[in-house]
Structures are given as C-alpha cells and as structure tokens.
Amino acid sequence: MLIKISSSFSFMPCKASLTAQENETGMSSHKDVVTSYCTKVHRNRKMERLQHNYLFPEICARELEHIKKYPNAKVITLGVGDTTQPLPDVVASSMSNYANKLATPTGYRGYGPEQGSKELRRAIAEKFYKDMNIKGTEIFISDGAQGDICRLQLLFGSDMSIAVQDPTFPAYVDSSVIIGQTGDVEKGSGSYQKIEYMKCGPQNSFFPDLSRTTPTDIIFFCSPNNPTGHAANWEQLEQLVQFAQQNGSIIVYDSAYAVYITDGRSPRSIYQVPGAKKVAIEVSSFSKIAGFTGVRLGWTVVPEELLYSNGLAVINDFNRIVCTCFNGASRIAQAGGLASLSSEGFKAVLSLVDYYKENARILLETFKSLGLSAYGGVNAPYIWVHFPGSDSWDVFNEILEKTHIVTVPGSGFGPGGKEFIRVTAFGHRENIVEASKRLRSLLS
Amino acid sequence: MLIKISSSFSFMPCKASLTAQENETGMSSHKDVVTSYCTKVHRNRKMERLQHNYLFPEICARELEHIKKYPNAKVITLGVGDTTQPLPDVVASSMSNYANKLATPTGYRGYGPEQGSKELRRAIAEKFYKDMNIKGTEIFISDGAQGDICRLQLLFGSDMSIAVQDPTFPAYVDSSVIIGQTGDVEKGSGSYQKIEYMKCGPQNSFFPDLSRTTPTDIIFFCSPNNPTGHAANWEQLEQLVQFAQQNGSIIVYDSAYAVYITDGRSPRSIYQVPGAKKVAIEVSSFSKIAGFTGVRLGWTVVPEELLYSNGLAVINDFNRIVCTCFNGASRIAQAGGLASLSSEGFKAVLSLVDYYKENARILLETFKSLGLSAYGGVNAPYIWVHFPGSDSWDVFNEILEKTHIVTVPGSGFGPGGKEFIRVTAFGHRENIVEASKRLRSLLS
C-alpha cells in the first residue's frame, strides 16, 4: 500500500530503539534506549513470526557467555558443525595460485558466469552424479547450501505448502517463515501452522510414516539428516520419490553430508532412485566434504526434467533467480572446489572425512557404553543422543556447566528434538577423546 | 494450500518440457520437447510476471551470438560493467597467503561470523564512514551488492510499496517483482504496476521531481546512478532525506560507485546528510572499487537508529536474515578486502579508479565531440548517451553490427532509458581508444 502524503514534516515519537555492544565475535547484542523518530514502515509480519534467533549464532553466543563465566575452563565445542582440520595442500595452493594470478594482466578475471564455471559444473557432474545422467548445465554453483535454500524459497514463493522432517536443519523452516508460507507458531508445541512436520525418531527408524503425511507442494528432505545422522536407505528413498510422484510434489533433497555414507545401504544422491529427476532438486555443499565452511562453496542440481504443473521447466526460473539475486560464487573458492575434485584432491578430502568419521565412532561408542540411546555417527558426522523425559535445553546446560562441552539442544531442530542433544564429530581428535572422558565421568 | 491425496499413482501428461544445450559460457539455452510427467506444483505467479531474462546475462548472450556471426571481428565489450585491470599485488598476495594458511593447523579457519570479520567491518567504518559515526557493528559484509538487495527484499516482504529511479540498476525492480511487491507489467510502457518510477533524465538534471513523487515505504536510490552516471549533489540528497523523513520512508541507497565521485559537490555516502541514519540503509561493494567482480565482496550498512513504525530496530531483522539466508562472505575474499583498505592497498585501488576514470573521460569526450548529448562519465564509470527518437535496442544493434562494440540498451534500465545507451568505462585503455575511433567513424 502507498503511504499517504503528510502535509507537514513529521517526527513521530518512538517508544524504544536498540543500541549495539560489540562482543568477542563482533556480533551485536542490542538493548532498549529512547529515541525520537520512527519511520512509518511496518515491520514485516513474516519476520515477526520467527520465534527466536537463528539456532547456530545463538549457540555461539551461549558458548561465549560460558567462556566469560569460566575464563580458565578448557571449553570443547561440539556444537555448531564446523570443520577443524586444515585443507589439503593441493586445494589451498590452487586457491593461492588463482589469487596471485588475479594480479597479472593475463590471469585477471572479472565476473564469472552466475551459474559457476563450466569446468567446475562438469567436474561435479562427473564426481557425484556419474551414471545418473546429470549434466553440468543442470548444476548451479553456490556460496553454500544455506544461500540456495533461501533462493529456492524465492523461486517457490509464499503460496507453497511445505513439509519438513522433524527434527531437521532449521534453515528450511526459518526460510519458509520468512518467505511467508507459514502461519503463526503454536505456543507450546513450537510448530508453525501450515508446515507439515514429518516425525523422524527411533520409533520409526528415523523415516516418516508417509501414509500419515499430508501431501504438500514441497518436501524438504535431508539425508544423512542433520541432526539425527540417519541416512535414508534405498527402500526409504524409493518410497519418498514415489510419494512425491503420487502427489505431484517437489522434493528439495539436501545431500550436504552424503560423502559420509559408507554403509552401502543408502544412496548418496536422490538421483540414484529411478524417476527422481522428475520430482527432485538436490542441494549440496563443499563445506563438510572439503572443509570449506569458511571458503564458501556449494551447488544445487535442478534437472531439466523437473516441471511445473504447466509443463514449464523449473530450471529456467531457478536460473533467473540465480542471475538476479546472486552473482556467482567467488572464483577463488571455485578454483579450490575444482582442485578438491581432482584425483589427488579428492583422495585427501576423503581422508579428512575418514578422520571425522573416526571421531564420530569414538563419540557414538562413548554414549552407547554409558547405556544411552545414541543414533547417527555411522553415515554422518553427528550423534543424536536421547535423554528420555528431559528437556534438551536442560541437558545442554547441564553438560556445558559440568563438562565445559558445548552441544546443540535438539529442540533447536524442531519439536521432535526436545529430548535429544546433537553432538558434532567435527573437531580435533584430542578434543574428541578428552570430551569422551569428561562425558563418561559425568554420565556414568 | 495443501494438495489433495490422489488415490492412485498419477502420471499427468505434459505439453512441453525444456532441454539444455551448452553454449560457450556454460549457460543453457532451452527449447521445447515432449515429456510425460509434470509435478502438480504451480509456477510462482511472481516469477511469471518477470518480463524477460535478467539484463546482463542477456547482453552476454547477444555478444556471444555476435562473435559466432563474425568470428574474425575484434569485438570490444563496453556492455556489462566488468572490471578488467589486475588486482594490486598487496591485495592478491593477502588472499593468496590466507588461502595457503588454510592448509596449516594454526591458520585453518571454519565458519566466520555471518556478519563478516570484526576487523573488516571496522576497517570499512573507518575508511568510508569516518565522521559519520557509523560503527563496525552496523556494517554487514556481503558477497556483493546484488545478494544484499535480495536479502533486503526478504526483510521488507511482499507488502511494501517501492520507488525506483527511472532508469536504474534492474536488480531493484526484478527483486521487487520476485518478492511480490508489484502487479503485472503494463504492456507498452514496460512499467510494473505498483512501482513508483521516478523519472531521472536531462530534463530534471537526473534528479526526480519529489513534489510529484508518490511516497512509498521503500525508495531505492543509486548514486552515482547506474546507468546515467549522475551523482546526486548535496542539495539533492538533502531533499531526498527530507522527503523520506516527511513520509516515513526507508531509503535503500546504493553507493557501489561512490569512490568515482571527485567533483566535490556530491556526497559519497548518504550518511553525510544530517538525519540520514534515521531513514537510510546503504548498500555498497568492493566490485568496482577494488576490481572484486569475480572475488565477490560487498557490504550493507543498517544504522541502529533506523526504526520500524513500532519502534523496533531494522538492524535486528536484517541480522536475522543474514544469519538465516547467508553464511558469511568467503574468508579469503574478506582478507583481500581488508588488504585493499590498507594504506598501500587503498592507494593502489584508487589508481585503478583513476585509470577507469580516464577511460570515461575519453569516451565522454568522444560522444560529445560527435555532437551527441552524453552524460555521466565524470563521477562515474558509465556514459549515458542520448539518441533522441531512437529505440535503444536499435541503437545497440546498429553499433554492434557496424563497429563490433557491445553496449547496453538503455531500456534495460527502465522505460526512461529507451532513447539511450549505456557505455562502460571498464576496459583496457587500448580497447577504449580503439572503440573511440570506431565510434567516431560510425557516428561522425
């Protein structure tokens, strides 16, 4: 709506404003002060619906508070899933060389294609989608999965209905709230109206009962799932694809942790399931494959065969979004991504994955030996630990207070996580071993 | 709305699908084929409203077509505003060193703060906002202005009314269409319903007549403007800020080219105007300052004093968007940004700016000497050339056919650009001089 012209200069008095105080991370914490002028712009109703801060910055803030409280404690961070091991030399040096070339007349490059370099797109098709007939032109290079999840939400718009696993990575729900697909949050349950929460817990082998799932336009599905660490097996993914086909839904499949799958019983890509190219988009990332959390690189596959109800291809609209709202990933990061897929690079990258998988084994073993029900940790770098009857924030706080170990309370991933905590296997081995000791002494 | 469960497995026949053929840039061109299955997901009505491809990829595609048609021609690109000169050594080597350190146990870093590094945020505050009392915590590091324009649209949501300069950078209008703030496009004029187009042409010294401008929630304002090259002067920006105050609007001020201002009559930041912190967000970028078009780095300032009508601070919601939809700019790019603001780096960067400004002078002089009305080129790297009575696509085509020079048709920047072309000063000097010669022989 257009604002009416006011006849005289207006200074609307305001009740409260906010001021920032810098903390150690450079993040701001704001508090109320008095001020004199407000704009007439209404706060976006959709932003108002968001319940609390985005989960992971909140965990970082709590960690910092704890460090302040116990300045001499050796805090171990098993919270945010952040890679800790150095990049392979071949990857770092390819980025280093690329950066140096930018200072030369022949090596300088300006804008790249918004969709990413042709070479990298082809290398991803070859490395991750061989025998699935995915073309380089169906792959869009991103600055990480989180950005593309929001760009996909822009593509879908506010009129879509969505389903998510419960629990799951919070960006799906939060971006859905921001774009306007949801109603308000229901007090008590913490669920948003209009979102279909697909319960995934020990009671159903972490795979939703699709016969009781209300069909939606879009199904976000993360496998191996963050936070439960469960990798859906062949039969489960076939069921999911068939469910989408029956209902005409689009699956947004997040395979950011697929490289951790080694049990042979779970596909690493949704496109290994026959028919998936007609119903699924796949979002992925170099973050947890190659340690690129700070380098920022990912990709999204939109198959040409994926069509709207009117027969038009989804890929064309996604291309439009990428060209309008994104200007390509850093060329330096892309050079690193390409090197990480080379024969030498990928071998080095997989040994990093093995390192984190051994961490996961140690942590999983720790919790199991204490008689706790712990899940994941085999095909994923996360362990999902059950504390029946407890509230996850209480467990989080108790572990933090008594062992100085940061975890993530399960309820941050959805109502279905309220009795769980997530423990990440990303970390230095010595810290993982030390954490294991502390946990054993606390929980035994 | 939720889709009804269908009782049997459904294969909806489809009229048309699209297939990709790779061209030289790795971009896809799609054409119709027959297929057997469509999802039931409706194409987003907002995406349907977009008129044509995003402008700049379209220009690149036309350039490639031209190269195919004339394989022996020496095509000169004065179209997309893309930097061409090598990075300063100090900038490239800082990125190179940072990348190398990522391969060491002590130098490895994972996720950075979503808002960017504290050091870089402070350095930007110091370099560009000195004496304006902008704090580092009010600055959010991005991967470039285009991404943040879309993230700002997510912040505002679909219920906002917006105004744009006409002509201006097309991302404002296109992102507004995508988020759902507009109606349909009006055939003929090419304007979108519900957008307030503020005409900026030679008739009004490229500054809108605010007394005839319908107030809106949001005013996108780019200065120096892309494409006209006009830098609003002090009086004009004071008028703009006062207009926003009177109506309670928020200005989104795009200062991506501010470093090109040298006439002393135009502010380089909106925050130099008293009161602007209560009404304006500023979006900017390292792309055209430091040659970072391929490196990807920018920033957005959201002052704490900028408040919604309910007294809450806009910065908190923008922080939420950044944390949810963006995971920080590449740390390597941030290292380069920091180096470009060092004493040595900034000196080198400014000499690049001088180089492009000399190109602009040559091109402006060329058009003027031919008796054409040409604008910009003094405080901006763009020249805006008037061809009264002509259609800009015709002029674009004629120049391309006869001189093998790529420009940008003015109508790509809005209805107000239909008799103009935009010529970029980004280029190697030899190409600029050669282009000048060719244009003189064509147009004299």
Strand order of the largest sheet of chain A: 4-10-9-8-7-5-6
What is the CATH topology assignment of the largest domain in chain A?
Answer: Aspartate Aminotransferase, domain 2
Number of domains of chain A: 2
Q: Supply the helix-strand structural class of chain A.
A: alpha/beta
| CATH architecture label of the largest domain in chain A | 3-Layer(aba) Sandwich
Helix content, binned percent of chain A: 25-40%
Radius of gyration of chain A equals 23 Å
The first-level CATH class name of the largest domain in chain A = Alpha Beta
Largest interface comes to: A-B, 150 and 149 residues
What is this entry, summarized?
Chains A, B: It holds the Pfam family Aminotran_1_2. Chains A, B: Its cofactor is pyridoxal 5'-phosphate. The structure is a homodimer of 444-residue chains. By secondary structure, the first copy, chain A, is an alpha/beta fold.
Structural key phrases:
homodimer, 444 residues, alpha/beta, Aspartate Aminotransferase, domain 1, Aspartate Aminotransferase, domain 2, 2 domains, seven-stranded mixed sheet, 13 helices, globular, aminotransferase (chains A, B), EC 2.6.1.83 (chains A, B), PyrdxlP-dep_Trfase (chains A, B)
Please provide a written account of the structure.
Two copies of one chain form a homodimer. By secondary structure, chain A is of the alpha/beta class. Chain A has two domains: 55-86 and 346-443, Aspartate Aminotransferase, domain 1; 89-344, 3-Layer(aba) Sandwich (Aspartate Aminotransferase, domain 2), CATH 3.40.640.10. Helices cover 36% and strands 16% of the residues of chain A. The first copy, chain A, has helices at residues 45-49, 55-69, 89-101, 118-128, 145-156, 171-179, 234-247, 287-290, 314-325, 331-340, 343-369, 392-403, 429-443; strands at residues 14-22, 28-35, 76-77, 139-142, 162-166, 195-199, 218-222, 250-254, 280-285, 298-301, 373-376, 382-386, 405-406, 408-409, 420-424. Chain A has a seven-stranded mixed β-sheet with strand order 4-10-9-8-7-5-6, with helices on both faces. In chain A, helix 11 runs parallel beside helix 13. Chain A is globular and about 55 Å long. The model of chain A is unreliable at 1-13 and 15-34 (pLDDT under 50). At the A-B interface, strand 1, strand 2, helix 1, helix 3 and helix 5 of A face strand 1, strand 2, helix 1, helix 3 and helix 5 of B.
